[in-house]
Amino acid sequence: MTARHVEGAAAYVPETVDLGRLAGAVQGCRGCDLFQGTTQAVFGAGPAAATMMLVGEQPGDHEDRDGKPFVGPAGRVLDDALLAAEITREQVYLTNAVKHFKFTRAAGQKRRIHKTPSRTEVVACRPWLFAELGAVQPDVLVLLGATAAKALMGNDFRLSAHRGEVLRPPDPGVPDNDLQVVVSIHPSAVLRTPREGRDAAYDGLVADLRLAASLLV
């Protein structure tokens, strides 16, 4: 393991709250090996003064190619859920816990298949997420999926045990420990749910987003 991997992303994050500078700097990040074989790092997107930040796991194949978060099938589910929860895009900053696409390929196949980031990779990339939190300073943070939840709430955090609750981030590295946190499933989980349970999974996502929206009133 090289020194850069011990340091993670911290050595590459500039001391700034300018999202444009951060988005430019992330392209040079070598804090872990996930940059290898990807098209680009995918930074967050949305207004710098957003009152709500949504954090997913990592960019997928579509996001890696386009350079924007939540533009693939899961992103379309999220767009619908936000609309159903009466949350406007102007309120929301979208990002991921990990900025590079981790994938694998089946033998003889070209298609890139999502692979869950390791805890080491999540922790290595966390300085970028902390930088985004410091720059945007949202009032409400929505963590979508187990990887995002554990990135800020700790590795022992169980998402299913805390849905429907309003939480506070325990990590002392989080820029704002008064931040209100809501956890939910990742939109991709709706797509993976068998058809007979898909409506219930989607409705649960919408309910969690409505809880988050209620905190902004």
Automatic annotation (TrEMBL):
<keyword id="KW-0004">4Fe-4S</keyword>
<dbReference type="InterPro" id="IPR051536">
    <property type="entry name" value="UDG_Type-4/5"/>
</dbReference>
<keyword id="KW-0227">DNA damage</keyword>
<keyword id="KW-0378">Hydrolase</keyword>
<dbReference type="Pfam" id="PF03167">
    <property type="entry name" value="UDG"/>
</dbReference>
<protein>
    <recommendedName>
        <fullName>Type-4 uracil-DNA glycosylase</fullName>
    </recommendedName>
</protein>
<dbReference type="InterPro" id="IPR005273">
    <property type="entry name" value="Ura-DNA_glyco_family4"/>
</dbReference>
<dbReference type="GO" id="GO:0097506">
    <property type="term" value="F:deaminated base DNA N-glycosylase activity"/>
</dbReference>
<dbReference type="GO" id="GO:0051539">
    <property type="term" value="F:4 iron, 4 sulfur cluster binding"/>
</dbReference>
<keyword id="KW-0408">Iron</keyword>
<keyword id="KW-0411">Iron-sulfur</keyword>
<dbReference type="GO" id="GO:0006281">
    <property type="term" value="P:DNA repair"/>
</dbReference>
<keyword id="KW-0234">DNA repair</keyword>
<keyword id="KW-0479">Metal-binding</keyword>
<feature type="domain" description="Uracil-DNA glycosylase-like">
    <location>
        <begin position="43"/>
        <end position="210"/>
    </location>
</feature>
<comment type="similarity">
    <text>Belongs to the uracil-DNA glycosylase (UDG) superfamily. Type 4 (UDGa) family.</text>
</comment>
<dbReference type="InterPro" id="IPR005122">
    <property type="entry name" value="Uracil-DNA_glycosylase-like"/>
</dbReference>
<dbReference type="InterPro" id="IPR036895">
    <property type="entry name" value="Uracil-DNA_glycosylase-like_sf"/>
</dbReference>
<dbReference type="GO" id="GO:0046872">
    <property type="term" value="F:metal ion binding"/>
</dbReference>
